[in-house]
Amino acid sequence: MDSNTLARLVITCADRPGIVAAVTSFLFAHEANITELDQHSTDARGGRFFMRVEFQTDKLSLTPVELQQAFGAQVGERFEMDWHLHFAAKRLRMAVLVSKHDHAALELLWRWQRGELPVDIPCVISNHPDLGAAVAAFGIPFVHVPFTADTQVQAEAQIRAQLGDVDFVVLARYMRVLSADFVAAFPNRIINIHHSFLPAFAGGDPYRQAQLRGVKIIGATAHYVTAELDQGPIIEQDVVRVTHRHELDDLKGLGRDLERQVLARAVRWHVEDRVLVDGNKTVVFA
Amino acid sequence: MDSNTLARLVITCADRPGIVAAVTSFLFAHEANITELDQHSTDARGGRFFMRVEFQTDKLSLTPVELQQAFGAQVGERFEMDWHLHFAAKRLRMAVLVSKHDHAALELLWRWQRGELPVDIPCVISNHPDLGAAVAAFGIPFVHVPFTADTQVQAEAQIRAQLGDVDFVVLARYMRVLSADFVAAFPNRIINIHHSFLPAFAGGDPYRQAQLRGVKIIGATAHYVTAELDQGPIIEQDVVRVTHRHELDDLKGLGRDLERQVLARAVRWHVEDRVLVDGNKTVVFA
Amino acid sequence: MDSNTLARLVITCADRPGIVAAVTSFLFAHEANITELDQHSTDARGGRFFMRVEFQTDKLSLTPVELQQAFGAQVGERFEMDWHLHFAAKRLRMAVLVSKHDHAALELLWRWQRGELPVDIPCVISNHPDLGAAVAAFGIPFVHVPFTADTQVQAEAQIRAQLGDVDFVVLARYMRVLSADFVAAFPNRIINIHHSFLPAFAGGDPYRQAQLRGVKIIGATAHYVTAELDQGPIIEQDVVRVTHRHELDDLKGLGRDLERQVLARAVRWHVEDRVLVDGNKTVVFA
Amino acid sequence: MDSNTLARLVITCADRPGIVAAVTSFLFAHEANITELDQHSTDARGGRFFMRVEFQTDKLSLTPVELQQAFGAQVGERFEMDWHLHFAAKRLRMAVLVSKHDHAALELLWRWQRGELPVDIPCVISNHPDLGAAVAAFGIPFVHVPFTADTQVQAEAQIRAQLGDVDFVVLARYMRVLSADFVAAFPNRIINIHHSFLPAFAGGDPYRQAQLRGVKIIGATAHYVTAELDQGPIIEQDVVRVTHRHELDDLKGLGRDLERQVLARAVRWHVEDRVLVDGNKTVVFA
User: S-S: B283 plus which of A180, B276, D186, D196, CB 3.0-4.6 Å?
Assistant: First the structure.
């Protein structure tokens, strides 16, 4: 696949007959070469329709702007679609918020550095200064924004000023709860990694909760952030077996590995337009 | 391993130095041949101690009864142990309670029939008559005991009369909540299979709860039953990945396979004395 | 989903632009309501194209036969497709061949009895008489066909006579190697369960091979049978962790559970037309 | 657990009655406080015996040297044991050999930097200069030793000189085959990560082999290096599911994550004396 000439069309709308035919006929007519197509209907009758199409643009008979306009006029409006077209050559801008635990953030930077995560990272923001040197080593600006209950309003203002026009935000173990206002500014564009298998052990100190309950498996969950803590649409989860031998520190160690993997997968899928939100759930075309 | 001459010693007590030396020296002195030994301390200082020893009895210098008495007198009392000795030639008696869903119960009967589950099964009891023929095909008595909110007291009395002196009870998708009295009669000797990854989705209709929440993994949990619903010590859990494509019936289908596997493992471990209870948790020497 | 009005169209052909548009436009024009669509291209340029479409037929403007003819004439020929159309109301006929190990065969029968496997089973054939009673309990004819090196030709002739017009054959631990002629009569329509993670441990006694090599994970593989032993296209695999503690019998026990699950999944996917063969590999739209 | 006062005793010998009693009585007599004990017998009669004991030394009635001498004289010789005693405060010295693929090596350095891997790392050696800067950022000496078929003898001599008295060597995707002489100098003390689920796909380019065979699961294997390529005792393996959609680069990407996890686990277990070699297999007390 040539990623320079790759584009993706992502669609959500009320289901009705003929959508796939209309979309694929449109792309065929304009010489877009479909290489991957996924669709999902929540119900055979009267459900929601979700679709993702990857195509190559090197023979396209229109410019990107023309394609955009033509699709909206000829297909999007007709089916009252919520849709967007993403040319992969235009990289998304991703900001990372982190507190003291570095593993999840560094995993993302490490993948980015190796070319595995095709985004631009304008900044890493933290409420602690600890990770400044580690982030700087990647050549990425590190911004320390103190954040306490008293200073939340100013802190969030400062963070939003820093974020500028980022496309999405990753909370890579950012241990502060963001305000509903802040969250509303990035609908389904803030990804959090929670260190439990949600909905089990929402809230604080999930590994301790897990140990107290005596579960035989622990997990990690990547989800979009909504106003309600740990309740947003789940993007990805994974688990690892534990036994009576694992003390709290062991759970945290195993959990770190899980969190890194789960968050990295969720971010990549988000970047590749594979995650479509369906109310409080997600459709993931992975 | 010759299971006719196999015995198991299971011990719980306050931890202090010298326990392993005392137990193993005792067994060595009486010519028990240790083939497997597991021990666990919850804390290096002042914790609980758990131990399980498998040994061959063919060269034993004492009779089983003498060994039992000698161990209590020479080791058990000294360390204030909670202990028991189980000669595998004496099979445990297991009763099964089931409602309409047959998969978990039949999985146990099928394994029993193949010789994979070394227990005696005096009866299968159900609050519905539906599974009578299926159970009878295994040559096991099937007892129909209707059970409604109004008749709970009589029903439980009737069940207990049927159970007689069973060693343990398996709730293989038995959809009635047993009274605290009933549960107290079989402390850590009733095994339930709950069709979710506890503590997520305790209570009714967990697959529907899971679908509504949009989780990416579903699970099943085998646990000992306590007075508090779905809160007892967890013996075993397992999970399977699901996607947006899975409808409720798909989750139930995947869940059935999980429940069968998880319950079968938990029952086998219980039969082999591998599950030691530590408050509301378990130590599983598997 | 209403399975009585469900149909599936499965397509393989050389990839070129416009296939998805042509297929979906055709179905839309004849009022087939697409509920699931998967497609795959092995290469963006010059590869093979694979597609599977599920649709509801209750509003179809043509009869099944007319739809079949129209699709061939209007789409199939144009793209030189290898395709078939399967109306789910017409159940596939599945035969099972088994030797002495009963678990894989009984797992299929058990699922069939519960309505989880929508096939007709005209017969179970075995080279040993042992499973006669167990199969008869399901109300399915059991046929004993002795099969030795000396009698292979006659045995295979007898089996083929028994099979009649079955749609596919499952080797549920059938421990005889079928001749190339036999295999050629059912191209990609014989499913075998091999008790290892292929290509590791092909051939005989894979659990013993696994134990000798000291692997930490064992597996099972369902694949289509070709003339070359254990080399056919893999449909599904799964694994389970093992340790130094597991003796050969333990591996066999764990393996039985794996084999049952893996074979059941592969058979269901085959029945639902989810498995498309691509040379010696498979595309599985699961 | 206090790791400063932690010690581990690891034992291999012919099995016979009384070993556990002798070892634990010895430790008890000298006021070693056992916190973890694992033992394994390959056979109830006439097999090999393996044992690992963790204990706290803060109340020990002997010095480490005295304990060592006393154990040898009183227990080790009596049972003809192959044994060693490791005081955790004395860190193992680990060298890393790597070629161009950096992920496996950097994963180890990263864990070491976070304090998750209690070893000293005297050097990272590579046959390419590429990773010099990345390694230097960890403050670890990087040594470039060119290694071609023509220069193997000199290269290995140079590497051995660099290694000095390291305790073990990790081949973190080191793409050269070491000579039998080199390997013999570090018996069961060279850990390799092979990027397949051995014994499947031994040798070169395993991800391409896996893709050609069409497997549905890929794996990674950490093993001790012996004179025979990819045939040494397996320490740990893990797997991940793949589908027809995964191209070769996708397999490599998924494989990188696996390799990092599998190698990190194997190295940690080696460092914690959890891996005992049994011929061409391992006993892992994890």
Answer: B276
